[in-house]
Write a structure and sequence with these properties.
mainly alpha; 69 residues; single chain; 0% strand; 3 helices
Length: 69
């Protein structure tokens, strides 16, 4: 995929398949249940995120909502 990217952005494409696979694996565990329905970026430090678990749940962080009529 990166091979077809414009030369100007190729230096920015440093993430690996292992990074996204590791994130997906973590999200499939019971430890990550608190993240259900929330936005998660594969580049985030998941241990740091776990340390913020109470705040994330209490303040209902990382959720996108559409409000209207």
């Amino acid at each position: 995929m990166a091979a077809r990217a414009p030369e100007s952005i190729k230096p920015l494409l440093i993430d690996t398949a292992e990074l996204s696979a590791g994130t997906a694996l973590y999200l499939s565990t019971e430890r990550a249940n608190y993240l259900g329905g929330r936005f998660v970026d594969a580049t985030w430090d998941l241990e740091e995120l776990e340390g913020m678990k109470d705040k994330i749940v209490q303040e209902d962080l990382f959720k996108t909502r559409i409000t209207g009529i």
